[in-house]
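Workshop exercise sheet. Pairs work together: one partner reads the sequence aloud, the other fills in the structure field after running the prediction. Swap roles for the next sheet.
Pair: D.N. / O.F.
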Amino acid sequence: MSTVQQPDPKDRPARLTVGVVGAGRVGPALAASLQLAGHRPVAVSAVSDASRKRAAQLLPDVPVVTPAEVLERSELVLLTVPDDALPSLVEGLASTGAVRPGQLLVHTSGRYGAKVLDPALRVGALPLALHPAMTFTGTPVDVQRLAGCPFGVTAPDELRLAAEALVIEMGGEPEWIAEESRPLYHTALALGANHLVTLVAQSMELLRAAGVTAPDRMLGPLLGAALDNALRSGDAALTGPVARGDAGTVAAHVAELRAHAPAAVAGYLAMARATADRALAYGLLKPELAEDLLGVLAHGTEGDAG
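Structure field:
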């Protein structure tokens, strides 16, 4: 149940024309959710065939135009481009006169706060950083997933209520992130979500190699329980051979990876060392067992170097 205080009607943004610069996986979904809240998408920029298809699926009948035309037609502009492209995009739009005073300019980068929009702020735009902490597919299911989705919100104090109101209208839950904390905030999300996908994909490949015909069905209950336990209990949820100090089992794992998935050895060793450190600190891993375990992990590293 959400604990976010709903804004007063007077604090809610008026119905706005909405434009999207960059029809990747995020922008069209956010615009579609704003449309459900009563706002009106009027323009989208898209270059690749895939982005044009996404725009047509999620924002049917919304014209595809240039970024400058998106800003010309829109009161609220979603800048949903890759992180590395955002600063130059903002600088370019501001320097060419595309940005209008009073225009709401929203970017969805997790890495940046509102400061990256300073070039637009200097010409009178209203800067908001609204980052949905969600993985996107580029399909209509993303709009449904926004229900209850946390958003990392950074904006000038005078725009805080407007930023939070927009997030709530999209079905999300605003979480205020200080400007200086944005890089750490984004690092934390990437560490958990992005690396999780890599680990799961590697695990499924190994299960297939072991003869499991439906690795997704085998992993689903296990990973669901592990995630739930970790979110509830943190380090107390650590389990498995590393946390128990089963050095022989860990050595066998490393040997199997060397034989069947050598590219996964370095990642396994790094995560095993991190797990051992946390298990030791929490008191799960007995110090007398840790020595042999850490020796196995060190030997595995030496094997990589050789």
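Discussion prompt: Confidence is low (pLDDT under 50) at residues 6-10. What would you look at next?
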